[in-house]
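Hi Y.,

Following your request, here is the sequence exactly as I used it, all 311 residues.
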Amino acid sequence: MTLCVTFLGTSGAIPTTGRNPSSLFVAREGEQFLFDAGEGTQRQMMRFGTGFSVSHLFVTHTHGDHVLGIPGLLQTMAFNDREEPLAIHCPRGTRRHLRSLVTLLGNRPSFPVRINEVDGGDVVYRGGDYEVRAFDTDHDTRSVGYALVEDDRKGRFDRERAEELGVPVGPAFSRLHEGEPVELEDGAVVRPEQVVGEPRPGRSLVYTGDTRPTEATLEVADDPDLLIHDATFADDWADRADHTAHSTARQAGRVASRAGAKRLALVHISSRYAGRPTSHLAEAREAFDGDPEVVSIPDDGGSIDVPYPDE
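Below is the corresponding structure, written out as tokens. Let me know if you'd prefer a different format.
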């Protein structure tokens, strides 16, 4: 089952020739989500071939570099004859700002748009076997981060053991895997725990948006498979990072290490580092207690596939 993140915008507040303002596209087995929508997001979606069939937009905060792409995105969706509803989730107290963006052109979109305010700790959206959780962040405005966390999966079915116990091949296998006991022709009962292993963890990804390092980032998901963290500055502007309520790359590396993250992606890179931000990468890797090769600075259009932990 696919879980893939495409980085549509990885710049800080000011875009560069190589980096657009903040936006992430997440595809999960037929479902598509956006996290933030800086200006030009709809063009990035065209450029990198994601399509526009997103059902939910999760906004971390209402600074322009995270939301100014919404009017153009909605207009593009309308021009493509969209009829499906779109849910926009945003921090509590910011609904009117989002509503203004939705109606900026003087009329409502041709499809339903629902705006939902959220608090840190809320389950924002519940899918069939996963949920999107909001968590508190520390920025200079009302803000939240989001974590997509999958449920545990069923344990592996031991077909060889089931056949040894006399379970006939066929529907009985499925019943056991679903957690139901099976009675055999001789009256013996085979229970699921005899042929099904321990539950296997699902996948998780965490996106902080703009923030200083926070404890909430550590608590929202156990050992996240992918942490996407604010890394606006390198050590040379650490004071500026604190003053503007952002993180340095080194701080992001420390958070990833403490959270037990399996992979770290650094985003929201300040335009001060218009070239290759090699200092960010070196400092984050120094702080990360793990394989330094799993720390990266994605380019716009880059993608990361998130595998299951046991693969």
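Residues 249-259 form the longest helix (11 residues).

Thanks again,
Q.
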